[in-house]
Amino acid sequence: MQPTMVFDLGNVLIGWDIYALYRKLLDSDEEIAAFLNSVRVHEWNAQMDAGKPFAEAVEELSVEHPDKAHLIRAYHERWIETILGPIDGTVRLLEQLDERGYRLLALSNWSAETFPLIRHTDPYSFLDRFETIFLSGQLRMIKPHEPIFRHLLEKSGCRAEECFFIDDSKANIETADRLGFQTHLFHAPEALENDLRARGILSA
User: Fold this and answer.
1) Cystine design at 143: which of 35, 96, 99, 172 (Cβ 3.0–4.6 Å)?
2) Secondary structure, 3-state, 36-80
3) Domain-located, residue 203
4) What is the CA radius of gyration of the chain?
5) Quick one: how far is CA 13 from the chain centroid?
6) Range of the domain at 34
7) What is the pLDDT of residues 104-143, one digit of tens each?
């Protein structure tokens, strides 16, 4: 039986790098790191991925860090500059899986406000290959917490062991492992392709 293929999006199929934006606004990677650490950017971004409105999150953080308000606002106003484009090697694998008749689902931590900025643009037409995209910002649930995985299983009608989950986050993979998914911790398209071939999911 073919597994249902479940893909993360950011840094698996679509490149994302917050430094790509802030290199235009600050003088060095060290300065960027200091700014991002000072505002606890990963915790802040996770709130928006979980459904918090951007405007509300920006306002709250700007009040907390008024000296950095212009940099905080830039993440909202210029978010598209954090997107690096499709990861071509993974996109090719997705296309091969689709052509071989695999069921394709996506499970992504992504704001419901920013995802539409790329959803129907030409470079990302491969997203149409997914039967369903489970987006954290729409569901108001977020990886690595179990409810979003359980939601995917319930709505897709799959058992965890029938799903092959691909994600670049170790924490997300650990949750999927605990629930019984087959998993691949993504580092590069070449390594993913080798794993898919070793498991017989892709063949020569």
Assistant:
1) 172
2) HHHCCHHHHHHHHHCCCCHHHHHHHHHHHCHHHHHHHHHHHHCHH
3) no
4) 18
5) 8
6) 16-82
7) 999 999 999 999 999 999 999 999 999 999 999 999 999 9
